[in-house]
């Protein structure tokens, strides 16, 4: 499976390496784009048609309250403590059916996965 991701600056490098080793197309903000503001980060997966992955809760507000153009999908990892390789394992679990992620803002809290439409629908 080849999943195109943009991972935010706070995404751990060991997980980036693990996903790439599994064949995922991962663009990391930390690699050459460190310090980008949140609006620019959101614009990048929109223009490159990538799924946005972040630990930053501000992205929900930017997409829903401020109405910025959404990326094809957004995944918020809301896990307070983890090992550097854990996010790769979580994404492998979350993206078992990548087509279910498109058009959705997905939140993973370490155990449960919740999704809400990026186009103004309800949660599921």
Structural class call reads alpha/beta
What share of the residues lie within helices? 25-40%
What share of residues are in beta strands?
Answer: 15-25%
Topology order in helix (H) and strand (E) letters: EHEHEHEHEE
Low-confidence stretches: none
Strand tally is 6
Cα-atom radius of gyration: 13 Å
Terminal Cα span:
25 Å
Describe the structure.
The structure is a single chain. The protein is an alpha/beta fold and 124 residues long. It has one domain. The protein is 30% helix and 22% strand. It has 4 helices and 6 strands; from the N terminus they run E-H-E-H-E-H-E-H-E-E. The chain has a 6-stranded mixed sheet with strand order 2-1-3-4-5-6, sandwiched between helices. Helix 4 links the parallel strand 4 and strand 5. Helix 1 crosses helix 4. The longest helix is centred in the middle third of the chain and has 11 residues.
Helices, strands, pairings?
Elements: E1 4-7, H1 13-21, E2 25-28, H2 38-48, E3 51-54, H3 58-65, E4 73-77, H4 86-94, E5 104-108, E6 113-117
Parallel strand pairs: 1-2, 1-3, 3-4, 4-5
Antiparallel strand pairs: 5-6
Helix pairs in contact: 1-4
């Amino acid at each position: 499976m080849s999943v195109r991701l943009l991972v935010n600056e706070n995404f751990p490098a060991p997980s980036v390496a693990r996903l790439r080793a599994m064949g995922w197309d991962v663009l990391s903000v930390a690699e050459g784009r460190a310090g980008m503001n949140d609006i620019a980060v959101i614009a990048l997966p929109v223009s490159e048609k990538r799924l946005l992955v972040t630990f930053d809760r501000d992205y929900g507000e930017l997409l829903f309250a401020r109405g910025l153009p959404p990326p094809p999908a957004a995944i918020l990892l809301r896990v307070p403590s983890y090992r550097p390789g854990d996010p790769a394992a979580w994404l492998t679990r979350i993206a078992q059916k990548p087509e279910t992620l498109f058009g959705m803002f997905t939140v993973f809290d370490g155990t449960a996965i919740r999704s809400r439409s990026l186009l103004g629908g309800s949660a599921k």
